[in-house]
Design brief:
mainly alpha, 74% helix, globular
């Protein structure tokens, strides 16, 4: 999170220097027409890769947890079509949709945590010993592996900043989102370790799914996997959508297109082959 804050101040400074240009635009201003175009295209490919990877990971989670007989391709195509539809309507529609789903997300998170604590599976001793081998292994894991996920990924918002109605709120909103997401990730990881232990978390592909799967209250409230699946459906949808949006407006900027809608569906379909 600290590394992400450093990166935030860099992109915040660049935004104030070039308030009307996206990331691909001021890359050409700073690095020159040709080198900047190449760097901008690399950013676009990076955004496409992250979007495709998130869609693929959610599809695999859905198959392994709730829909084992469904084709992965069918799930991915439906997800891509939904993403393309929302983006075709515009970024404001996406933002308003997020305002609705954040309420659902908070409710699911609160409910899931409540059940986990009431189940009695939380053992704080699993978090000990803290700093057993000092700071060195923590720092070497944090940079660059955990730094890239997901704080360095937030550079996609540099593509959206020029289109904001209230650019003066960028610093406050972005920084508060970065800090709150860092705290949420740290808490979730600690909760998984407290329930499962370090070894089980390391082995598990989806540790949060395993954690909530252990909930058993009075032999009645069980199999709460759907809470995690639905939570990840919401978060992955918006994350993949924002990355695809960053990619298509980046391509529209690089190739001087009038709008991004003309390339939205072909680019969305290309995500399936990226997987």
């Amino acid at each position: 999170m600290c590394g992400g804050m450093i990166l935030f101040f860099i992109f915040s400074y660049l935004f104030h220097q070039y308030p009307n240009l996206p990331l691909t635009g001021y890359a050409r201003k700073i690095l020159g027409r040709y080198l900047g175009w190449v760097i901008g295209m690399l950013f676009v490919l990076f955004f496409l890769y992250i979007s495709a990877r998130n869609i693929r990971e959610f599809g695999e989670l859905l198959i392994s947890s709730t829909m084992p007989k469904t084709l992965l391709l069918a799930i991915n195509i439906l997800m891509v079509l939904a993403i393309c539809y929302v983006l075709y309507l515009g970024i404001e529609v996406l933002a308003r949709t997020a305002e609705v789903f954040i309420v659902i997300l908070i409710f699911l998170g609160f409910t899931g945590n409540l059940f986990i604590y009431f189940s009695g599976n939380v053992d704080i001793h699993n978090l000990q010993p803290i700093l057993e081998n000092g700071w060195k292994p923590i720092v070497t894991i944090a940079f660059p592996r955990m730094y890239i996920f997901s704080f360095a990924e937030m550079l996609v918002f540099a593509m959206i900043l020029p289109y904001l109605n209230r650019p003066e709120s960028v610093k406050k909103v972005w920084l508060s989102a970065l800090i709150s997401s860092g705290i949420a990730l740290s808490y979730t990881t600690a909760l998984n370790i407290a329930v499962l232990g370090v070894e089980a978390v390391e082995r598990s592909t989806f540790p949060l799914l395993t954690t909530i799967g252990m909930v058993n209250l009075l032999e009645f409230i069980q199999r709460l996997d759907a809470i995690v699946v639905f939570t990840l459906l919401i978060t992955v949808f918006f994350k993949a959508t924002i990355y695809l949006y960053g990619a298509v407006i980046g391509m529209a900027d690089l190739f001087k297109l009038k709008n991004y809608q003309s390339i939205l569906l072909p680019t969305g379909m290309a995500l399936i082959f990226f997987q």
